[in-house]
Amino acid sequence: MVAKPLLARVALVDQVTALLTQRILDRAYAPGDRLNIDALTREFEVSSSPIREALTRLAALGLVASTSFSGFSVAPEPPRAWFEQLRDFRILNESWAARQLARTRQAGPIAAMRASVEAMEQELSRSAESDCDYVGASRLDEAFHGAMLSACGNEILARAVRNLHPHLHHARLFNSRPHGIKPVLDEHGAILEAIVRGDEDAAAAAVAHHLNISWQRYCDDASLQPVGVAATAASPPRRAAPAPASRRAAASPS
Predict the structure, then answer these.
(1) Given this chain, do its domains 7-74 and 80-247 carry the same CATH topology?
(2) Each residue of 48-72: pLDDT tens digit?
(3) What is the CATH number of domain 80-247?
(4) Are 190 and 206 in contact (CB under 8 A)?
(5) What is the pTM of this model?
(6) Rounded to whole angstroms, how far apart are CA atoms 188 and 251?
(7) Cβ atoms within 10 A of the Cβ of 56, count?
(8) Does the CA dihedral 8-29-182-82 come out positive or negative?
């Protein structure tokens, strides 16, 4: 006998996961806040199973912490040193991936990267940069880098980068300081152009420049915070007001 598919339940878990993720990124739930399953069950008017499964998913992504006696809570943000190590790790791996794609010039991945650039251009042309959909731009940013990694021919390398969930953690870091997407768009364009013409050295250099300068933009911005606010990855206040969804963190060190 064929088991009844759990399509509705899976969709519900996905919705709960997406909502909890948004609240964490928007700082409606601050680092360290407890995530009480019973309270969430009452608020969302669902059973505890999809809540527990969603929290387990978020724990695997590093957004939620889980302990035997305390239950679930919002995970602390990684320190600045972790983000800098992540940047260096990505430069090593993604620069190599860019070299491989510049060598092979596979049509599919290049088309996916070009589609990301074009979609970001359309977003920028639709409205003033201050009103751009930064969340959507972040997803396009992730798609651009994902296409390049997927085409490198080394699944272990690609998985190692993806499993660190860099865009998700950068979204936490950048949510209170959304940056303009124009610089990111220009840097993606330079990477793509070098890959299309088969220039391996230029492609690798463009990736390294992009990741370095993206992080520098954040550091420059963070250094302008008022006295008493540390310019570190964990500096935002514990109860910052939620940022509007359309302005949340997306032109992060992508």
Answers:
(1) no
(2) 999 999 999 999 988 999 988 779 9
(3) 1.20.120.530
(4) yes
(5) 0.74
(6) 11
(7) 14
(8) negative
What's the topology of domain 7-74? Arc Repressor Mutant, subunit A (1.10.10)
Backbone angles phi, psi at 109, to 5 degrees: -60, -40
> How far, in whole angstroms, is CA 31 from its chain's centroid?
17
Determine the residue type at 227: V
**Surface-to-core class of residue 157, CB atoms within 10 Å of its CB (0-12 exposed, 13-18 middle, 19+ buried):** middle
Give whole-number Cα distances, 165 to 77, 79, 90, 137, in Å. 13, 15, 11, 16
* Lookup result for tokens 């006696």: 69
Domain boundaries, the chain: 7-74, 80-247
Least confident of 27-31, 95-99, 234-238: 234-238
H helix intervals, the chain:
7-25, 37-44, 48-61, 80-104, 107-126, 134-150, 155-162, 166-174, 182-196, 200-222
User: CA 205, CA 227: separation in Å to the nearest integer?
Assistant: 36
Task: Report how far residue 199's alpha carbon sits from residue 201's, in angstroms, rounded to the nearest whole number.
Answer: 6
Q: Show the tokens assigned to 49.
A: 């199973």
| 3-state secondary structure (DSSP) of residue 65 | strand
Residue type, 164: L
